Amino acid sequence: MIRSLRTAEKAMQMEQVRIDALANNLANVDSTGFRQILTRVKEESEAAGPGGDLQALKMGREAWAAQPRLDMGHALDVRPGAIEETGRPTDVAIMGRGFFVIGTEEGERYTRNGSFILNEQRQLTTPEGKLVQGEGGPLTLDGNAFSIEADGTVIVDGNQAGKLRLVDFAEPTRLEHMGANLLTAPEDMQAQPVPAGEATVAQGHIEGSNVNAIDTLVAMIAAQRAFEVQSKVMSTEDEMLNKSVNNLPRISA
Q1: Cβ of 118: how many Cβ atoms within 10 Å?
Q2: Per-domain residue ranges of the chain
Q3: Cα angle at 137 between 134 and 141, to 5 degrees?
Q4: Dihedrals phi, psi of 158, to nearest 5 degrees
Q5: 3-class DSSP state for residue 211?
Q6: Cβ distance 28 to 209 under 8 Å?
Q7: Which of 62, 73, 55 is nearest to 7 (CA)?
Q8: Tens-digit pLDDT profile for the chain (253 aa)?
Q9: Residues of the chain by 3-state class (helix, strand, coil), percent to 5
Q10: Rg for the chain (alpha carbons), in Å?
Q11: What are the angstrom distances between the C-alpha of 119 and each of 94, 125, 142, 171?
Q12: 191 within 8 A of 110, measured Cβ to Cβ
């Protein structure tokens, strides 16, 4: 009975992780370049857990350690969003692999959101003021006219002024959201230049979110129902446990 309670509690926790991820995806359905989070059930490698020592004594420690334990994992969905034409010269969309590099106080961050602006120093930035990185550092478009070619080369008044830095990762699904539509990489994964021919950029365009609102709503309803079912199971098991305890023979003093 206690095991059933623990199983229901774990299932509720897993469904809550799924619900939170789906809610975040839905909130960003209109966010430029947003990459949705996919959740999946995975097997835990750790044997520790509530009641682990007691169960180990009953089953034998090796048998307890060998039992599979499930948890909810997540991964970044790297499938592209739809490309939309805006006509704004500072908007840039990546066609193919890779991410733009953004300089922040915490270090380099990555994004597919190419809805950029120019600050007072005519540097290319995110709407939040973070500097877009070129291969030689921040990009300054100080001139009367500028263009961005398909390979990311920035031309200002007919002269090359830099080149957009595009990077990719061996396992881009491991990138994590950190707010402001920026992504961060785990310490054991390094950014690498996108190989030639693997990506082009389109000036005057942006990439939409890869979230499908209808599919996400359907998945959220299913996750909420699963959460409610496990909640009812937990309540029923808890009630039965209380009755069992109350019906135990009382030992008189």
Answers
A1: 16
A2: 2-79+211-246, 83-207
A3: 65
A4: 85, -5
A5: coil
A6: yes
A7: 55
A8: 555 556 666 777 788 888 999 999 999 999 999 999 998 776 554 444 444 444 444 444 454 344 445 566 889 999 999 999 999 999 999 999 999 999 999 999 999 999 999 999 999 999 999 999 999 999 999 999 999 999 999 999 999 999 999 999 999 999 999 999 999 999 999 999 999 899 999 999 999 999 999 999 999 999 888 778 777 766 666 566 666 656 656 554 4
A9: 30, 30, 40
A10: 25
A11: 22, 7, 11, 33
A12: yes
Structure tokens at 228: 């409610």
Q: Which amino acid is at 235?
A: S
Q: Tokens standing for 159?
A: 């002269």
d(CA 211, CA 79): 10
Token pair listed for 156:
């200002």
Six-digit token pair at 177?
A: 């959201």
CB atoms within 10 A of CB 136: 10
Residue 175 in tokens: 């990138």
How is residue 172 annotated by DSSP?
G
> Which tokens sit at 214?
């209808």
Q: Which amino acid is at 93?
A: A
